[in-house]
Amino acid sequence: MSENPNETKLVNFAMANGTRRKIINFLADGCRSTGEIGERIGKATLDFHLRILQQAGLIELEEETVKLSEYGKSFLKNKTEKVEEKTADFSQAKPIEIARIRQLSPCIADSSRLRVSANMTPPLGGILKLLEPLFPRSNYSDRKDSLIIQKGEIIITIYGSGKVSIRMIKNEDEAKEELESLKSIINEAIAKGVVPAPREKIKVDLTEVYKYLPQTNCGKCGEQGCYSFAIKLMARQVALDRCTLHKEPEYKSNHEHLQILADYI
């Protein structure tokens, strides 16, 4: 397989998913039947995952038999599932404390959920960007000096100034748990002085996200239309599950594609 940028993107796209990484590792010892793989990772979306891996040139599929391609073998040899760590400059950082919740109000997008504000002391300031790799679904914004973390429907935003905002929380107890977890993860990294190596990022285009939405503009997600929803999705201001139509059988394939794209947003 050549180092064509589009082909490289296909490989990264394929390997961004945990299920497909399990399939590749399962094939390391030799050929497997689709039945064996299905028993290991589940049969519901097996065909979809195999198709993605095949398109990326990582596997060869012949009838009911699956094996690594030569490129797949080479890829597996040179890659490792272990997350490397690197030393981070936390010399000026001090362990943080999170002050009590100072605001609790209904979310605009869903009034049954809450929006929470709290303060982090001391403010993380310049080291905030270094913490991005600690959270699997996160994105640092230089412009806003903020780190956005998504955990399911919950969206956490940490600002360099020390402000912390959490949206889509069920109740105050859940908010306290999330804040305590946040504090623990950050303080552990500061104490060790290490963070995981930055994840490779692939740019996802807005039109690509919109393409896989129903495009019915039904408004059930709370947005004016699917394009508005795509914008919010790209900004991590809404979760994909807010689109209820995507749960319908006719949109199953599109939903699976968007779940993959969401890993890159």
UniProtKB/TrEMBL annotation:
Gene3D superfamilies from the entry? Electron transport complex subunit B, putative Fe-S cluster, Winged helix-like DNA-binding domain superfamily/Winged helix DNA-binding domain
Q: Which PANTHER family does the entry link to? A: ACETYL-COA DECARBONYLASE_SYNTHASE COMPLEX SUBUNIT GAMMA (PTHR36214:SF3), PTHR36214
UniProt-listed PROSITE patterns: 4FE4S
Recall the GO molecular function terms of this protein's record: 4 iron, 4 sulfur cluster binding; DNA-binding transcription factor activity; metal ion binding
Indicate the segments forming the 4Fe-4S domain, all copies. 201-260
**Which keywords belong to this entry?**
4Fe-4S, Iron, Iron-sulfur, Metal-binding
Note the SUPFAM superfamilies from the entry: Winged helix' DNA-binding domain
Residues folding into a coiled coil are: none
The lineage, from the top, is: Archaea, Methanobacteriati, Methanobacteriota, Stenosarchaea group, Methanomicrobia
Protein name, as recorded: 4Fe-4S domain-containing protein
Check the record and name the SMART domains matching this protein: HTH_ARSR (SM00418)
